[in-house]
Amino acid sequence: MHSLYRINMDTLLADLRYSFRTLLKSPTFTLAAILMLALGIGANTAIFSAIDTVLIRPAPYKNSSRVVMVSEKRVKEGSMDSPVAPADFFDWRSQTKTLDHMAAFDHDQFNLTGNGAAVRLRGARVTSGFFEALGVQPALGRTFRKSEEQAGADRSILLSHELWKSAFNADPGLVGRTLEIDGQALTVAGVLPEHFRFPFGFDGQLFAPLSFTPRDAANRSLHSYSVIAELKPGVDIAAAQADMDLVAGRLEREYPVNAGHGINLVGLQNHLTADVRPALILLLAGAGLVLLIACSNVANLVLARSVGRRKEIGIRLALGSTRARVVRQLLVEGALLSSAAAVLGIFLAVWSIEAARATFFSRFEQFSLAGLDRIHVDLRVLAFTIVIAFITPCLFAIIPALMASGRNSGTPLRESGRGASYANRRRFRSALIVVEVALSMIMLVGSGFLLKSYWALMHVNAGFTAEHLAVAEVALPEIKYKTADQANSFFTRLLARLAELPPVRSAGLSQAVPFMQGDWRTGVVLADRPARPGERIRVHPRFVSDRYLETLGIAIRQGRGILPTDTKGKPLVAVISETVAHRYWPNDNPVGKRFAFNDEKVWIDVVGVAADVKDRELNREATPDAYLPYVQNPLPVTIRAQRIVLRTSEDLATIAPLIRGAVASIDRDQPVSEVRSMVSYVDDSLATRRFNLLLLAFLTVLALLLSAAGLYSVMAYFVTERTGEIGIRLALGANRSDVLRLVLIQGLVLAASGVVIGLAIGSVVPKLLTTMLYGVTPHDPLIFSLAPVFLMITALAANYIPAMRATKVDPVFALRAE
């Protein structure tokens, strides 16, 4: 047994040495094959590393498999993940029988003062149970207590490990001490573990308790909180959903305002990856097609090369070598090519991952939420690459090896390569080209639909003009600006100073700007009619300054906008969006109508109608907005965080110091969050689509180049094989244009066959991409017309050089060679 194993190993080593020498003798073939395979293997490795990190591995939390997002479900409004009102959250938490550690949270920013210059920190306010639901234990200290959810209770904070190290030198004695946050002395309750990542946004640096006054806790109209929970032991998500359906039903019966409000549970992993999951699966399929095209190309090269090795193979068979032995030798050569390609492919994958991380994953929050900013090539990914490297030779080498070692391999074919084996090789190579073109056609159709969808989104009327708009957030500390009048006075003075700056054409403010992804939908009642059965009357309140609409370029369709005279003590007014007007007063002039927020019953006069604005995403319907003067805010919420919006003639680098200077001239302890352009908000909303398009387009270009290279090699070899025939044709009087036409037609027939097959299969692609498309029909005639034309032009270009070479054949030389 040992001697047999040694014989097999010796034979394998001999095959490896011989294969290595053989490949070195054909450097052009070897390098071309390795490069083609490396592109396919590298693309698959890079995309698998993303899928492994995002879709296969659990989220980096102890309880991630049991954590669920708990959202409000409004089926009639087409929303399955709406924010939650405080009263509903407290009822859900008290009535559920299947969920533990239910916690509400809301993103927030904090001013750290008293430790040098004021620093703006990002984080969240959370109720008790938030960290317990995720299975997170602090590295130092404790998490929040339930008693801290009551407004006025002793307040504490939790620091991220990174902030603890960078700002406080990892001082273990910091726990129990107070820090000045938003002008308040808050106690440091603990420090989070080193590798904790806030699941719902960038840079969770500081966390504070989410607290409620009794009035806030009873509010069922203002929906603004997210909720997570942990499944109880032995409970699956289906059982928990059934339990929460019962809770939602009870609340609907008890509170009319809850009519139509359900509860939806989604696993944390599915929630975080919802935006990128379809794209990753699509891109893996595209990378797989590129690998198949690369294998088809290399199979063509191997088959062409095997013709030149007929004598070698014939001699080996004549000397007693078996067909299996010859096939194994050729497969070993394929394995060497694949192994070298895998090594190069890993380097390409690492490079592409780093490029994607720098360009997309670390810049845009939707990629960070899914975990794409932490992907890397690890042992699992290397194992995947090794498997691909073992499978690949079977795709490109086994059939050429079987054909090369066939029954006629020992016969020195002198009849210009004619015979059954020639015909088989030719048919097989032609079939490979047809397959390559068909696969390229499928990818080209998919890229065409994504490109047209992206183009349509880029030309959507967002309802405002994003160019030359600068946005900065200013959040005032509650301890210093206790009342709404104090906060409003600060912002009024700030707007006046900003409006005086030479680069500023117009200045406004709002608590939220378009594409912030917030949902502040609030129930209202209409003065002129009650709600119809099943009707939910809601608007998004936008508390703005008098020049906000003008600054953003939002057109007034009817009536007037907000005026400087719409101040506190004057009649309450609002400018509603067209969606509100059409939805609630479809047959009446809405100007002069009145409405009130459910819990306030203070009537507000509609004085104008403004154009709809795409507040969330360009591909979603406009929200029902109501613009109200921020100084007349009738809700029991003091808005201390405002977005300052400036229309300016200067760039951000120039305007940002001016904004900070204006704020400091009023309150030098008040920091300003990053100053961004409104264009960047729009770009962020398109980041996922842009990434999908760019990567699929890159894979499609690879596929087209590989297909063109394959078609070129086949036609070049066709010209070489038929040099004698071409010479005879020319000697008998054929025109060189006839020869050109012969070669071009043969190549274009192969390409056209692939195009037809690809179109037939590609017709289902739009249905698979439905969730990723916008403004394009599944049978778009432009795409299904231009894609074949583009591919045929590529095929013509690939055919042209071999065809021209055929026209330059010397008849005399060709006949002598025969």
Question: What features would you describe in this structure?
Answer:
- It is a single chain.
- This protein has 818 residues and is of the alpha+beta class.
- Strands 3-4-9-6-8-7 form a six-stranded mixed barrel.
- The longest helix has 39 residues, at 323-361.
- It is elongated, with a radius of gyration of 34 Å.
Oligomeric description of these chains = single chain
Tally of strands? 22
- The tally of helices reads 26
Strand arrangement, largest sheet? Answer: 3-4-9-6-8-7
What value does the average pLDDT take? 83
Fraction of residues in H or I helices: 40-55%
**Contiguous uncertain segments of 5+ residues:** 1-5, 412-417
Structural class call reads alpha+beta
Strand content: 15-25%
Terminal residue distance: 53 Å
Q: Provide the gyration radius in Å.
A: 34 Å
Tell me, what's the shape? Answer: elongated
* Largest beta-sheet details: 6 strands, mixed, barrel
Which keywords apply here?
818 residues, alpha+beta, six-stranded mixed barrel, six-stranded mixed β-barrel, 26 helices, 22 strands, disordered N terminus
